[in-house]
UniProtKB/TrEMBL annotation:
<dbReference type="InterPro" id="IPR001647">
    <property type="entry name" value="HTH_TetR"/>
</dbReference>
<dbReference type="InterPro" id="IPR009057">
    <property type="entry name" value="Homeodomain-like_sf"/>
</dbReference>
<keyword id="KW-0238">DNA-binding</keyword>
<keyword id="KW-0804">Transcription</keyword>
<feature type="DNA-binding region" description="H-T-H motif">
    <location>
        <begin position="32"/>
        <end position="51"/>
    </location>
</feature>
<dbReference type="Pfam" id="PF00440">
    <property type="entry name" value="TetR_N"/>
</dbReference>
<feature type="domain" description="HTH tetR-type">
    <location>
        <begin position="9"/>
        <end position="69"/>
    </location>
</feature>
<dbReference type="GO" id="GO:0003677">
    <property type="term" value="F:DNA binding"/>
</dbReference>
<protein>
    <submittedName>
        <fullName>TetR family transcriptional regulator</fullName>
    </submittedName>
</protein>
<dbReference type="InterPro" id="IPR036271">
    <property type="entry name" value="Tet_transcr_reg_TetR-rel_C_sf"/>
</dbReference>
<keyword id="KW-0805">Transcription regulation</keyword>
């Protein structure tokens, strides 16, 4: 690859990384081409050297944003050697994750967009859901029951994070994260006792 081709590839990757961060933080409708190119240190006119359209860029950036989550989830699970599932739950439902959507899990931000998106977008979202389900189920022995638990866990993680980001009351937001964390950890340790 010649120097100019290497520069072009590096510029394209820089734009994709910036766009992936933006779609995680703001969804797919907000980031504009001029804004993204300026942040990447490139001219608006150079955009079409890298992407066929804004939709092309957003589609690729969304796929990048979704895929980046797997490594983070695996690292979170490895932090707690005694109970990897608890490590994953604690990291996902942490205030830091709630307060940092630009570097957080794209499943939270892009769920509604994927639901309204084209087939390619839905497939990229589904690929990430499947990867997370496999990871979580694998922590529990990869049985049919573990897969069902993984579906419950992932749904609670994504839903609680989404809701906690949307609440105006910081106290309620914190309470939601703490309560769901506690309930998931209690649920993982065995059936909940019947209510009195």
């Amino acid at each position: 690859m010649g120097h100019s081709q290497a520069d072009k590839a590096a510029s394209r990757e820089r734009v994709l990384r910036i766009a992936a961060r933006k779609v995680r933080a703001e969804g797919v409708t907000r980031p504009g081409v001029a804004e993204l190119m300026k942040e990447a240190g490139l001219t608006h006119g150079g955009f079409y050297k890298h992407f066929t359209s804004r939709d092309d860029l957003i589609s690729q950036a969304s796929a990048v944003a979704l895929a980046e989550g797997s490594a983070k989830m695996e690292r979170a699970a490895r932090k707690n050697e005694q109970d990897p599932r608890a490590g994953l739950v604690d990291a996902y439902l942490a205030r830091q994750h709630r307060d940092s959507p630009a570097t957080g899990c794209a499943l939270v931000t892009l769920g509604a967009d994927a639901g309204r998106g084209d087939q390619h977008f839905k497939e990229a979202y589904e690929k990430q859901v499947r990867a997370y389900l496999d990871l979580i189920a694998g922590l529990e022995g990869d049985t049919e029951e573990a897969r069902a638990e993984a579906m419950l866990t992932l749904s609670a993680l994504v839903g609680a994070t989404l809701m906690s980001r949307a609440l105006a009351d910081p106290g309620l937001s914190d309470e939601l994260l703490e309560t769901v964390t506690g309930q998931l950890e209690r649920h993982a340790s065995g059936p909940l006792p019947p209510a009195d």
